[in-house]
Amino acid sequence: MIFKSHIIPSHLSKYLVDIIYHRDFQPAHNKDRYLPDGTINIVFEFTGTPKYIYKKGTDEKIQECRDVWFSGVQKNFLTISSESEEMMVIVFKPGAGFPLIHKSVSEYTDKVIQAEGVFGPNIKQLFETLKESEKTEEKFKIAENWLEEQLSEDDFYTNIIQYAIDAIENSPTQINLSELSDKLGYSQKQFIQLFKKYVGITPKQFHRIVRFNEILTAVENKEEISWTIIAADCGYFDQAHFIKDFQSFSGINPKKYIKDIEDFPNFLPVK
Predict the structure, then answer these.
(1) Given 102, 132, 150, which residue is the final one in a domain?
(2) Which residues belong to any copy of the HTH araC/xylS-type domain (predicted)?
(3) What are the tens digits of pLDDT across the range 52-76?
């Protein structure tokens, strides 16, 4: 298996989490569960192998994805088939959606659609160019060039929303969203509308996702885990609330998560 993560150039680092390329991935399982992290993604599958999205908690296929598709911000977990021989994924930071698609990101929240429906025919041209390129570094450079053309200049609101995102991510256990909206000079209603436009979800929903990912980070690579301590450290005041949130985002309880997790905290094999 070949797995490469691109070194993001500085001028794109405020928009991108990563660009990932992998080939010859043959997992022992046939489904993956993607746990929400606030990002949006463009996914390229170069071999023509379709990927299927499943109805939550079942084996029922509800959607087929081919060639290149766009995944909006997900508020809950997404189950998708694992089979693929060659893929590239561009992962965008929270707040980068509006400069990328030039309209409200909330239109695509909890949706996965063929990318032509978002970017028009030029995304299919990008797909063909990437597919024809034989070298991984060339693929990364081609993707960079397309992003430089696609991403718009930051506007006044981009910087405001980025400030809010940073405030939530840096202090998820202490942040007060009402005080944050006051500090930015907006009513709560205005703040929610603006945040949804640029991030795809409300500040409260984003805060819950950030806190959930704090938990995943806290348990990563730990041999002994006290869920009571971790829940308290991540801002939960009772176990019932913690478990309810965890199951909502992952579809499983914390103990099963630890049993199932393999290489990446936000991806679980479904066996």
Answers:
(1) 150
(2) 158-260
(3) 999 998 999 999 999 999 999 999 9
